[in-house]
């Protein structure tokens, strides 16, 4: 009947009636303004979904809320939207998953056939796949377990915390495959600290994990591992050693490790990093790898406001060769065979100097698995430099950090623009040999923190409300999910004609997945529909409408 019901009542009924075989084009069933407040829903819409077998209702839909910058999906104690696990379709059928700005779609699924009659209207982009020509193997997509992320998510109820990590790592979520862990404090901590703040404790007798690890990060890492749809590669990054190990005696500002290569301080700091790995392993979290130092060149700035330690490329090489590399291997972290030590962990502008200094050196090369890069300030160096590095040294490049702010508002709840920047960078870097992409904080609060330095607030895929009764999935979350759920570890990028299809406003990237299926990710930043005219040998041709201001993932078997 037409009896109106509150959104919370609707959600209870929907949950009760929802069955695995019923499925939807989400936006068709659910009105665009389901809110936590008193918006009225009509049961007739639900009954329509139950009675119309042509609608495929699989995932729990977004509960939208509107802010000046756009829409978020609200999760609370009663409801959290999901993304269904991917399943095979018959030969010749393409699954299309779409999220957009103006239609409020989030992973809306439709089917289309190769060699069909569809002839959508719009500018046509011709792309031919070359499935026998494969490029880099992918490590996956993921996010970072900063103190701020863990503290914010730790404010949620147990049920909502589980929903959040299912959203990130679960089979009904984004299926993240990477997780970066801060080694002691960073700018996104509530205080500056290390694991041994007892001055001149060269033997590290006072080393110990802190509450941020034991009460927040480690339990949440274990929960993520429990919920994960696939094995996750955890890796650590250190922002700063204990302040007493630095030349300036504080965690921030202009300072390097004291005393130089071969000294007791350099040896002690390398053992400090190994102790971190051992301590997490003892708590049940085995790390796949680590970077030597987060943003090492910031440590030469007198006014740098948060945790850092300066390393030149030559200093990092000497630290690896004389201290960290041998100590990792002695402790059983046999980089690069069963452990992945990464250099740089800073912006693209530094990558040529770092790789030339460290990877071209035959001794340090033997300890290094790959190069970590950040996306900040990269316009001065072409992205093709990653192709050159991978071809020369045959070691992976992993993007280890990206984050965004939205003008004067660091969070920009609902901003589609922030999500588009992610889509652009993942596409451009993976088309140039980058093997994976790691976002910065998994979650932040509505002010974009906490951060002890007070100057680095930004947005995140999930924002937790001030009272922790709900959290908001921003468009950034869905942008990441359009990659992470489809471009799983072990996927190989497929060559195309043209080599780099599209422009910065419309791009197409294809991958052969380990199970033999093909995943394609595209985005359209134009204000009108575009057409992807895709040709695949032994499959045929398909013309796909790519909606205005949309993110899209395609999958066929």
UniProtKB/TrEMBL annotation:
Name assigned to this protein? Glucosylceramidase
**Family to which this protein belongs:** Belongs to the glycosyl hydrolase 30 family.
Q: Which domain of life is it from?
A: Eukaryota
Domain named Glycosyl hydrolase family 30 beta sandwich is located at: 490-554
The reaction(s) this protein catalyses:
a beta-D-glucosyl-(1<->1')-N-acylsphing-4-enine + H2O = an N-acylsphing-4-enine + D-glucose
Q: Where is the Glycosyl hydrolase family 30 TIM-barrel domain?
A: 140-487
Q: What class of enzyme is it?
A: hydrolase
């Amino acid at each position: 009947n037409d009896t109106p019901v509150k959104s919370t009542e609707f959600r209870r009924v929907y949950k009760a009636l929802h069955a695995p075989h019923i499925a939807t084009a989400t936006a068709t069933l659910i009105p665009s303004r389901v809110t936590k407040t008193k918006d009225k829903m009509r049961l007739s819409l639900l009954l329509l979904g139950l009675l119309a077998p042509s609608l495929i209702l699989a995932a729990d839909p977004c509960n939208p809320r509107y802010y000046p910058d756009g829409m978020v999906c609200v999760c609370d104690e009663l409801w959290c939207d999901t993304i269904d696990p991917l399943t095979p379709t018959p030969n010749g059928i393409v699954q299309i998953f779409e999220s957009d700005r103006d239609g409020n779609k989030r992973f809306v699924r439709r089917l289309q056939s190769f060699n069909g009659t569809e002839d959508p209207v719009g500018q046509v982009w011709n792309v031919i796949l070359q499935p026998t020509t494969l490029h880099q193997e992918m490590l996956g997509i993921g996010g970072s377990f900063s103190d701020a992320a863990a503290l914010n998510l730790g404010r949620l109820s147990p049920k909502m915390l589980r929903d959040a990590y299912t959203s990130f790592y679960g089979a009904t979520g984004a299926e993240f495959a990477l997780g970066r862990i801060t080694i002691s404090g960073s700018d996104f901590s509530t205080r500056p600290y290390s694991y041994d703040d007892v001055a001149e404790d060269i033997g590290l007798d006072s080393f110990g994990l802190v509450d941020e690890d034991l009460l927040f990060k480690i339990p949440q890492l274990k929960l993520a591992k429990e919920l994960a749809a696939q094995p996750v590669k955890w890796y650590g990054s250190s922002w700063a050693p204990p302040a007493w190990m630095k030349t300036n005696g504080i965690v921030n500002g202009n300072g390097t490790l004291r005393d130089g290569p071969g000294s007791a301080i350099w040896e002690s700091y390398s053992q400090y990093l190994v102790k971190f790995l051992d301590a997490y392993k003892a708590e049940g979290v085995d790390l796949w790898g680590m970077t030597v130092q987060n943003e090492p060149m910031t440590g030469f700035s007198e006014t740098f406001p948060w945790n850092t330690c300066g390393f030149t490329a030559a200093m990092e090489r000497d630290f690896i060769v004389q201290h960290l590399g041998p100590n990792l291997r002695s402790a059983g972290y046999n980089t690069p065979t069963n452990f992945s030590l990464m250099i740089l962990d800073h912006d693209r502008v530094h990558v040529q100097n770092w790789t030339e200094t460290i990877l071209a050196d035959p001794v340090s090369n033997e300890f290094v698995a790959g190069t970590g890069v950040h996306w900040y300030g990269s316009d001065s160096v072409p992205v093709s430099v990653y192709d050159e590095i991978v071809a020369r040294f045959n070691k992976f490049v992993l993007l280890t950090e990206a984050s965004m702010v939205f003008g004067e508002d660091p969070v920009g709840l609902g901003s589609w623009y922030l999500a588009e920047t992610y889509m652009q960078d993942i596409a451009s870097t993976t088309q140039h040999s980058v093997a994976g992409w790691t976002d910065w904080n998994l979650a932040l609060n509505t002010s974009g923190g906490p951060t002890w330095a007070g100057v680095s607030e930004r947005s995140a895929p999930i924002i937790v409300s001030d009272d922790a009764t709900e959290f908001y999935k921003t468009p950034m979350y869905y942008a990441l999910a359009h990659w992470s759920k489809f471009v799983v570890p072990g996927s190989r990028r497929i060559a195309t004609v043209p080599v780099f299809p599209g422009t910065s406003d419309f791009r197409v990237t294809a991958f052969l997945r380990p199970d033999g299926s093909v995943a394609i990710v595209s985005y359209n930043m134009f204000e009108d529909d575009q057409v992807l005219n895709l040709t695949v040998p032994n499959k045929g041709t398909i013309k796909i409408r790519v909606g205005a201001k949309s993110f899209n993932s395609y999958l066929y078997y």
